[in-house]
Amino acid sequence: MSTIKPLWFVLSTLIFLLSATSDSSPLENFLHCLSKHSSPSITKAIYTPQNPSFLSILHMHTYNHRFSAPTAPKPLAIVTALDESHVQGTVVCAKSNGIQIRIRSGGHDCEGLSYVSDVPFVVLDMFHFGSVDVDIESGTAWAESGATLGDVYYHISEKSGVHGFPAGVCPTVGAGGHFSGGGYGNLMRKYGLSVDNIIDAKLVDVNGNILDRKSMGEDLFWAIRGGGGGSFGVILSWKIKLVYVTPKVTVFKVMRNLEDGAKGLVYKWQLIATKLHDDLFIRVMHDVVDGTQKAKNKTIKVTFIGLFLGKSDQMLSLVNESFPELGLKQSDCIEMPWINSTLYWFNYPIGTPIKALLDVPKEPLSYSFKTMSDYVKRPIRKSALKSMWKLMIKSESVRMEWNPYGGKMHEISPSETPFPHRAGNLFLIEYLTTWGQDGVDAANRYLNISRSFYEFMTPYVSHSPREAFLNYRDLDIGSNFPSNATNMNIAQSYGSKYFKGNFKRLVRVKSKVDPENFFRHEQSIPPLSH
Ligand SMILES: Cc1cc2nc3c(=O)[nH]c(=O)nc-3n(C[C@H](O)[C@H](O)[C@H](O)COP(=O)(O)OP(=O)(O)OC[C@H]3O[C@@H](n4cnc5c(N)ncnc54)[C@H](O)[C@@H]3O)c2cc1C
Ligand SMILES: *[C@@H]1O[C@H](CO)[C@@H](O)[C@H](O)[C@H]1NC(C)=O
Ligand SMILES: *[C@@H]1O[C@H](CO)[C@@H](O)[C@H](O)[C@H]1NC(C)=O
Ligand SMILES: *[C@@H]1O[C@H](CO)[C@@H](O)[C@H](O)[C@H]1NC(C)=O
Ligand SMILES: *[C@@H]1O[C@H](CO)[C@@H](O)[C@H](O)[C@H]1NC(C)=O
Ligand SMILES: *[C@@H]1O[C@H](CO)[C@@H](O)[C@H](O)[C@H]1NC(C)=O
Q1: In angstroms, what is the span from residue 150 Cα to ligand 1's centroid?
Q2: Has domain 249-336+365-460 been given CATH number 3.40.50.2000?
Q3: How many Å apart are CA 370 and CA 65, to the nearest integer?
Q4: Taking 70 as the threshold, does the pLDDT of residue 309 lie above it?
Q5: Best residue for ligand 5 mutational test, from 157, 249, 340 (most atoms within 8 Å of Cβ)
Q6: What is the dotted CATH code of the domain comprising 7-125?
Q7: Would you name the residues annotated as active-site residues?
Q8: Closest ligand by atom to 322 CA
Q9: How many angstroms separate the Cα of 485 from the Cα of each of 75, 94, 204, 304, 482?
Q10: pLDDT average, residue stretch 37-65
Q11: pLDDT at site 365
Q12: For residue 146, which of 132, 128, 172, 133 has the smallest C-alpha distance?
């Protein structure tokens, strides 16, 4: 990037000339304002479409090809904030010029809301805010919003072999979006969600002020821990409370095809997964795969992937007690430090250097996906499992992950944080439909498949409302178009699914901290007057 001749000088001259006239564009006014409200290094932080690096900067953190195709709407500019004043300036100047901002940390928003909008917008890109400052003595760390989960895990492990943090499995996910949407992973039965372990935060509010927990007050601090980013302010950093992990943990993967008794196992898993010891977490993944020799057709492969905070013999006796059908053997179990298990869970081969946690893709990802979610409160009966898998095989492109609740998840009150899905839930389903073809027709075909599958699942999942997990953002459950015109009835529909009774309190907080509704997107929290 340093070899590219800074376009800023050309632009600033242009802006200087234009600012003298009364009809400069909102972008020009924005850039002019930004230069006045930010530290001088702002010149190195701005990318407009004329800059040769514009697209590569835009796509450096886009994780869904559906929203990074050439036809997808592009921002007027990207501000890759280098210091706090750039964030403050972007907020103040976008607001005063009527430009929407989209805040991006890791770029994994499942509907691309952090880098696409249907109205003129600027991307505030937080990837330079990537530091993780670990203090083992107090058992805490400050993680900036652009730090990835891999960064967080890696830096903890540099300082300690017995500390960890409960967050997601995918190391490239950003702390900014992930934590503000709840954040779950395989430590959730033991320690709850990421938001259950956040003790402070720094945020830029709608007036450009920097607030911490004390100055923002408990209402706003409550709202940003699960109420979603992009509604209340820009998170600069989070203070997290580290959790204890045993020096060695045990992991395993057991796979079973449909023909080999997967149905009985999955049925039994539903009965016991939430009741297992808190130290044990067993996720079930459902994939469509090629059949075996005897049945050449596609079939379903079910994978049970486990994490136990402790040694394998102890785990084996726990599994043997409540889930003997799994047939778990000592040879299936691998003991390793917790940090290695984060790589194992993300499918890295054993022996992968821990540094791989810091990797980010060099190219924009070339596949598209649609994510949806459901909560299950009663075991799905065997005949329904059978029809469900039949439909998956027909679709070929849908996969599922089932994540058990129980343990700590059931002990925390549903109003403790905006994330309401606590006691009473057996497991969370993530549906993931992926495709590699470009274009609107392919997208529509796969979106239709995804929606049909979701429709099929209706009788087996939560209802009134049909609950959904915010981090698996799904615009189908209700969304505002255009995104600058928030309608309370529509907001109520997605709000009740993501937040249940907590939606009302989120609206109250929003009305107080951003009554003009500057921080908004298709699924943001509206203030009362809107
Ligand atoms: C491959 C993949 C794996 C995933 N695995 C998990 C998982 O294991 N567990 C889980 O809980 N979720 C998981 N998710 C969902 C993920 O947690 C959410 O998509 C999350 O919002 C991503 O955060 P981000 O910073 O990477 O995304 P971004 O796209 O940067 O941000 C998401 C949204 O958060 C808001 N936002 C971002 N940064 C800020 C900020 N600094 N201040 C204020 N608002 C901000 C914006 O509104 C933005 O639209 C996964 C998603 C993907 C694509
Ligand atoms: C929303 O944006 C569109 C397109 O830029 C614009 O025409 C419309 O006036 C805006 N509406 C509101 C309520 O700001
Ligand atoms: C394989 O698929 C075909 C076409 O869908 C079907 O007719 C046949 O019965 C299937 N065979 C088996 C063994 O399931
Ligand atoms: C599992 O439990 C059964 C009966 O309770 C016992 O006979 C068997 O030895 C146990 N196996 C393991 C691996 O602990
Ligand atoms: C954990 O990972 C490190 C780095 O790759 C490796 O040296 C070590 O052998 C691994 N430990 C285990 C038990 O897998
Ligand atoms: C999917 O497409 C079919 C055929 O075009 C249509 O009948 C069906 O309603 C669509 N389903 C969904 C959920 O959109």
Answers
A1: 14
A2: no
A3: 11
A4: yes
A5: 340
A6: 3.30.43.10
A7: 472
A8: 4
A9: 19, 17, 23, 44, 6
A10: 96
A11: 80
A12: 128
